[in-house]
Design goal:
- The protein has 67 residues and is an alpha+beta fold.
- Helices cover 39% and strands 15% of the residues.
């Protein structure tokens, strides 16, 4: 996902990082806006509200859960 964000950022796009507050994790340097959440459900709700379309790429159990 960081590579997708980088491509958009480098071409002048607005990028938003929607993530959980997890100690020790760093933010993407390509996010022009950061939205942080304490719990998974509000984060997922925000992702659904922000998106016009969704693409699912291979990932782990978190990817399956979010699909």
């Amino acid at each position: 996902m960081n590579e997708v964000m980088r491509g958009a950022f480098q071409n002048g796009g607005k990028t938003t990082g929607v993530r959980l507050k997890i100690p020790g994790r760093s933010h993407s340097e390509y996010a022009t806006e950061h939205l942080l959440f304490d719990a998974l459900n509000p984060r997922q709700e925000k992702l659904l509200n922000l998106g016009d379309a969704f693409i699912s790429l291979p990932g782990g159990i978190g990817t399956i859960y979010e699909i």
